[in-house]
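Onboarding guide, step 5: your first structure request.
Type a short instruction followed by the sequence, for example:

Predict the 3D structure of this protein.
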Amino acid sequence: MSDASELSSKYVLQTVGFDARFPNTNQTRNCFQNYTDYFKCIAAKGDDFAPCKQFKKAYNSLCPNEWISKFDEQRENGTFPASLEP
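The system replies with structure tokens like these:
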């Protein structure tokens, strides 16, 4: 098996499915909503709660890495612009 086929068999790339709440091509709100939903979910159910992982997969797919870094920094500093309480 070649290196390329080994890699392709290990990783499955998928995009986030259609979400009727965000019908437009601009996915900024969808990114932000999935980010906040993930942290609300783990606050309520814990890090190991499997359904929370769907929110994380979605925001990692939708959000630019720079935004995720900025959001993480804001959470750490207590300046994140939304409540993450469940």
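Each response can be followed by summary notes, for example: The chain has a mean pLDDT of 86.
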